[in-house]
């Protein structure tokens, strides 16, 4: 079973890139973030024509998450991260697929920090930690995938000294991520490649992709009951170099059936 996560940075504007990648990679399930499209503008027909069913939670101009499936319509569990009924951002969606729970998330960026946006990020993270702990306590196989907007360690960023004041790398952010990990989650890419330089995002500015001046901010967390099924993982870095591509690259894992 191949599961991928991809921050598309605008599902309609990047649709040719997304469809090309789906055709070449053929993941079984895909978590998409930053759709930047309201509910009615999600390109369902094109996704269906590519061989996928989909559930999604859109929002005009910002945010937006979706789960695509090559094996029938995902069984939606929730499209809201519990804990704050006043939070209207479309940043989380969760479904049952092939016997596992798949959560797709787009965690807030949080910049500028400190400030209200950073406070929102940390509050969202706290809610996410509570939700993640419920999954751990359930003992069920769970995968939480998406754009976490977290640089976990210095080896996950080109020239970490330049990021010390950024919301993605501030101590509070990394501590929040570690709090989730400490519940028993496995960071899939680091489990397989503990010492390698791995990036999933390269800015559009200053030839960041050409210089490989990237960040690793797109993550897969695996619950204890599924971590031993992890077979392989990787980043489709070449997609970042395609014309009119997102500033993120698709990330994927393969699980033993």
UniProtKB/TrEMBL annotation:
Species of provenance: Chitinophaga caseinilytica
> Which cofactors, if any, are listed as required?
Mn(2+); Mg(2+)
Protein's name in the database: Exodeoxyribonuclease III
| InterPro entries given in the database record | AP_endonuc_1 (IPR004808), AP_endonuclease_F1_CS (IPR020848), Endo/exonu/phosph_ase_sf (IPR036691), Endo/exonuclease/phosphatase (IPR005135), ExoIII-like (IPR037493)
Q: Coiled-coil segments, which residues?
A: none
Q: Which GO terms describe its molecular function?
A: double-stranded DNA 3'-5' DNA exonuclease activity
Top-level lineage group: Bacteria
Q: Which Pfam families match?
A: Exo_endo_phos
Any idea of its EC number?
3.1.11.2
The family note in this entry says:
Belongs to the DNA repair enzymes AP/ExoA family.
Q: Which residues form the Endonuclease/exonuclease/phosphatase domain?
A: 4-248
Write the record's keywords in alphabetical order, separated by commas. Answer: Hydrolase, Magnesium, Metal-binding
- Supply the PANTHER family for this chain: EXODEOXYRIBONUCLEASE III (PTHR43250:SF1)
Main EC class the enzyme belongs to: hydrolase
């Amino acid at each position: 079973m191949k599961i991928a996560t991809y921050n598309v940075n605008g599902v309609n504007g990047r649709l040719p890139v997304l469809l090309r990648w789906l055709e070449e990679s053929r993941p079984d399930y895909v978590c998409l973030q930053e759709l930047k499209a309201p509910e009615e503008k999600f390109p369902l027909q094109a996704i269906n024509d590519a061989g996928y069913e989909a559930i999604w939670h859109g929002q005009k101009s910002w945010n937006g998450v979706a789960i695509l499936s090559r094996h029938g319509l995902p069984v939606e569990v929730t499209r809201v991260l519990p804990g704050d009924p006043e939070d209207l951002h479309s940043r989380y969606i969760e479904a049952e697929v092939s016997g596992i729970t798949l959560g797709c998330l787009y965690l807030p960026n949080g910049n500028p920090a400190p400030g209200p946006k950073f406070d929102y990020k940390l509050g969202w993270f706290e809610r996410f930690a509570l939700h993640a702990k419920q999954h751990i306590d359930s003992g069920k196989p769970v995968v939480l995938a998406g754009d976490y907007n977290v640089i976990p360690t210095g080896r996950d960023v080109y020239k970490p000294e330049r990021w010390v004041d950024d919301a993605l790398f501030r101590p509070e952010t990394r501590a929040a991520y570690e709090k989730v990990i400490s519940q028993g989650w496995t960071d899939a890419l680091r489990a397989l490649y503990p010492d390698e330089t791995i990036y999933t995002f390269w800015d559009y500015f200053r030839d960041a992709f050409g210089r490989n001046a990237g960040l690793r901010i797109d993550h897969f967390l695996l619950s204890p009951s599924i971590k031993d099924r992890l077979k392989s993982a990787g980043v489709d870095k070449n997609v970042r170099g395609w014309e009119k591509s997102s500033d993120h690259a698709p990330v994927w894992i393969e699980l033993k059936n």
